[in-house]
């Protein structure tokens, strides 16, 4: 290990002289010291109230330095919120940016990882520019934005590593040279020992072993998960012992498993060099179990580990602290003197303190400017409450935006109805700053870049006079085939997607036509299916991750919600992953395949476009739009619509349906009925019966629930009908309540009503098996007829006498 040196891309370049060898060792020790002082000082900043919460990587320094040595430009990290030493050693971030994040500095220049939106130790590299264009991933070391979900980093690792394999296998992707150098990249993952108990860990370990994905997975094992020791967390108290069945053997797939002590600097460097070589050159996944790590300050700033560790354990952690052991090794080997190391220690401490002060000064300067502006405006108002607010702000040693704007708003409350120059100036300033704070704290749920779905040209479907009438599934199949032939980046995978072309034949025959690397099967593992798509998407590919039924989305919701949906927001649009989750749901007879948990999706997947097409032609138009744009989406196809007949558009792979716009599918004069998906057909069936009763309904298909009706078509309809019914098959108070809020509040539909708005939903339980179970559990056409009639009866009981 120590016979070679490495340049910035970790390539072997020469035989080392002693001075060169010493320089490497001393530099590594300096980096470890700086990281330790960051941890120590960071905790103090939390305890003194300058920051809200702190979690740090002390005790893991040497292992992370060893990993940084083999991490190259183009590689990816999917990490753990204790990786600060690796981040410093690899150059991905530095001490100044670390403390800026700790203080939640809302400026992307100060905190490039998240613009103050994430707590400390949650790192990411920016792979998207301000216009939403991809940056060159091959000229930098890449870190996927961290999440706090324990084990959550495993899921996207699968896609990050699989991308390298696909780039290596498919020469047609060589033009995407800013995403890959022909698959020569390794995906590195780090995880804590306790988080290996999560199901997603085993999902991904199994998957990387099956497919031989080039990954290096590090387990930082300090013996505890907060207060719970390994003996309670893990069988045999040792995760690498548990995983021995995954060990790769001759002529089998599997994983190379290494075990090394976290205070053994030389052993760590050698192990990481070997594992990275195997993963990079042979595309064999590797797992490194780093044992005997310590956690000098305990789990986080929220508590003390002295509460649950014995005195013997605490003494052992002092004796085997990795920095102490490295210092001992340096001195015993004659690499440096005690005087040199003491001087290095002082320089490291001084550097960290200097950068911390700079980060705090820059953060306070941002706040102080706005505090000063507010004080000046308040002093210009002759009012007792304004005077109190001014003095309150002046007395604060460390102002916060919450306090500044809280005081300003209280003064504006007090001055309501008054007219003065001072009040008007304060109000104008407040409104101007609200726009700034909206950008700071509430923007970038979507990337909103040059390739946003909003910028995709609307192309109508074109039908010839001799247009074929085919099963809906055939419309989708042809749409997919045309797009996959047009764009080599597109690929699809999921349970039964490959060989049989999915359970409803949307991809039938396409694996044979396009190849097993474009359309392929996966095991039953919803978390890692979505995670695979997430990792592939950020590396420049265009994946469709299929979840076989909408009910099964629940099993992958943590990845979809915590990671995919929040990615653009939590990175201030510094990262994007244009993944499409394809699934099918709505009406089918039985408890397990008939769920319509739209309220779950709306509540947990803000950050995804939620598409709910009424038929396969509309679904195809939405896919055509999404394939040409760069934001993530979920498309819920109608499970009972694949064999319904539809006319086949001539431009089936080109026409587009705009995302976020409703459509009027039937004009009427008496009442507006809003629905979507399979239930829309129920409403259309009811319309025929209602016309026999002299009632003409206007039917609005929402088409997408997120965003909802950007053109405010519902409000336009209400101007004519003044009555509103929302029909869907989610639970009561679910998606129907969401739609009602959108129409009444955002579209001001409340002022257009002359009767109470109503919702018609499924019952509060899933439907029992059989047609009768469906009929009595979800809205039927009879239910729609009676509900509409009841609304009309309420408005005009003479013309519409009571039915019952």
TrEMBL record:
Q: Per its UniProt record, what Gene3D superfamilies does this chain match?
A: 3.40.50.920, 3.40.50.970
E.C. number: 1.2.4.4
Keyword Acetylation applies: no
Query: What GO molecular function annotations does the UniProt record carry, in alphabetical order?
Result: branched-chain 2-oxo acid dehydrogenase activity
Q: Does the keyword Ligase apply?
A: no
Gene Ontology biological-process annotations:
branched-chain amino acid catabolic process; response to nutrient
- Cite the SMART domains for this sequence: Transket_pyr
Annotated keywords: Oxidoreductase, Thiamine pyrophosphate
> What Pfam families does its record include?
E1_dh (PF00676), Transket_pyr (PF02779), Transketolase_C (PF02780)
Which cofactors are reported in the record for this sequence?
Answer: thiamine diphosphate
Q: Where is the signal peptide?
A: none
Which residues does the UniProt record annotate as the domain Transketolase-like pyrimidine-binding?
A: 470-644
Give the matching InterPro entries. Answer: DH_E1, THDP-binding, Transketo_C/PFOR_II, Transketolase-like_Pyr-bd, Transketolase_C
Instruction: Tell me, in a sentence or two, what this protein's role is.
Output: E1 component of the 2-oxoglutarate dehydrogenase (OGDH) complex which catalyzes the decarboxylation of 2-oxoglutarate, the first step in the conversion of 2-oxoglutarate to succinyl-CoA and CO(2).
**Name by which UniProt lists this protein:** 3-methyl-2-oxobutanoate dehydrogenase (2-methylpropanoyl-transferring)
Native species of this protein? Sphingobacterium siyangense
Q: What is the lineage of its organism?
A: Bacteria, Pseudomonadati, Bacteroidota, Sphingobacteriia, Sphingobacteriales
């Amino acid at each position: 290990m120590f016979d070679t040196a490495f340049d910035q891309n970790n390539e072997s370049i020469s035989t080392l002289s002693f001075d060169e060898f010493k320089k490497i060792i001393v530099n590594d020790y300096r980096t470890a010291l700086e990281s330790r002082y960051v941890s120590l000082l960071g905790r103090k900043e939390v305890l003194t109230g300058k920051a809200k919460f702190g979690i740090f990587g002390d005790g893991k320094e040497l292992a992370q330095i060893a990993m940084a040595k083999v991490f190259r430009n183009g590689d990816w990290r999917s990490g753990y919120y204790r990786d600060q030493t690796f981040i410093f050693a690899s150059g991905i971030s530095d001490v100044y940016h670390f403390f800026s994040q700790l203080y939640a500095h809302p400026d992307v220049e100060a905190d490039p990882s998240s613009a103050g939106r994430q707590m400390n130790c949650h790192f990411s590299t920016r792979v998207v520019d301000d216009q939403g264009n991809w940056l060159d991933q091959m000229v930098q070391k890449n870190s996927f934005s961290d999440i706090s979900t324990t084990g959550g980093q495993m899921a996207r690792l699968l896609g990050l590593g699989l991308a390298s394999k696909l780039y290596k296998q498919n020469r047609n992707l060589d033009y995407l040279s800013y995403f890959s150098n022909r698959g020569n990249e390794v995906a590195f993952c780090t995880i804590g020992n306790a988080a290996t108990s999560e199901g997603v860990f085993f999902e991904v370990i199994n998957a990387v072993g099956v497919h031989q994905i080039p990954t290096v997975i590090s387990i930082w094992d300090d013996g505890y998960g907060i207060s719970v020791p390994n003996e309670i967390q893990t069988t045999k108290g040792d995760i690498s012992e548990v995983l021995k069945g995954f060990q790769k053997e001759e002529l089998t797939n599997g994983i190379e498993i290494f075990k090394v002590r976290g205070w053994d600097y030389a052993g760590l460097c050698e192990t990481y060099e070997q594992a990275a070589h195997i993963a990079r050159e042979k595309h064999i996944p590797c797992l490194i179990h780093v044992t005997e790590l310590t956690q000098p300050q305990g789990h986080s700033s929220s508590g003390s580990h002295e509460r649950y560790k014995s005195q013997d354990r605490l003494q052992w952690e002092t004796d085997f602290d990795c920095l102490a052991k490295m210092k001992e090794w340096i001195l015993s080997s004659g690499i440096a003197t005690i005087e040199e190391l003491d001087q290095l220690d002082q320089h490291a401490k001084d550097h960290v303190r200097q950068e911390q002060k700079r980060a705090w000064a820059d953060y306070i300067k941002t706040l102080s400017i706005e505090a000063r502006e507010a004080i000046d405006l308040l002093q210009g108002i002759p009012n007792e409450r304004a005077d109190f607010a001014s003095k309150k702000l002046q007395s604060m040693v460390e102002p916060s935006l919450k306090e500044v704007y809280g005081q300003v708003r209280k003064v504006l409350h007090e001055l309501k109805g008054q007219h003065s120059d001072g009040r008007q100036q304060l109000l104008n300033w407040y409104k101007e700053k609200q726009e700034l704070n909206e950008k700071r704290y509430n923007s970038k749920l979507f990337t909103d870049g040059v390739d946003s779905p909003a910028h995709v040209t609307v192309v109508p479907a074109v039908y010839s006079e001799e247009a074929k009438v085919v099963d809906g599934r055939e419309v989708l199949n042809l749409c997919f085939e045309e797009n996959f032939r047009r764009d080599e980046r597109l690929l699809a995978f999921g349970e039964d997607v490959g060989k049989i072309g999915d359970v409803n034949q949307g991809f039938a025959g396409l694996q044979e036509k396009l190849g097993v690397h474009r359309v392929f099967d996966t095991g039953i593992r919803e978390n890692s299916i979505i995670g695979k798509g997430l990792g592939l998407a950020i590396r420049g590919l265009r994946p469709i991750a299929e979840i076989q039924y909408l009910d099964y989305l629940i099993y992958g919701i943590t990845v979809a919600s915590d990671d995919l949906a929040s990615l653009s927001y939590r990175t201030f649009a510094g990262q994007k992953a244009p993944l499409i989750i394809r699934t099918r749901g709505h009406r089918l007879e039985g408890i397990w395949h008939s769920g319509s948990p739209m309220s779950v999706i709306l509540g947990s997947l803000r950050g995804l476009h939620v598409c709910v097409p009424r038929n396969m032609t509309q679904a195809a138009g939405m896919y055509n739009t999404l394939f040409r744009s760069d934001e993530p989406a979920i498309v819920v196809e109608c499970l009972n619509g694949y064999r319904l007949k539809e006319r086949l558009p001539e431009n089936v792979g080109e026409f587009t349906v705009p995302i976020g716009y409703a459509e009027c599918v039937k004009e009427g004069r008496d009442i507006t009925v809003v629905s979507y998906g399979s239930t829309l057909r129920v409403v259309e069936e009811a319309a025929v019966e209602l016309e026999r009763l002299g009632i003409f309904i206007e039917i609005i298909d929402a088409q997408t629930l997120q965003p909802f009706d950007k053109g405010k078509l519902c409000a336009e309809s209400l101007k004519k009908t003044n009555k509103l019914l929302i029909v869907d098959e989610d639970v009561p108070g679910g998606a129907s309540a969401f739609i009602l809020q959108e129409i009444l509040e955002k579209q001001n539909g409340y002022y257009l009503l002359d009767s109470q708005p109503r919702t018609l939903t499924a019952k509060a339980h899933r439907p029992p098996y059989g047609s009768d179970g469906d009929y009595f559990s979800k809205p039927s056409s009879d239910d729609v007829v009676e509900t509409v009639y009841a609304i009309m009866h309420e408005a005009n009981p003479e013309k519409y006498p009571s039915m019952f």
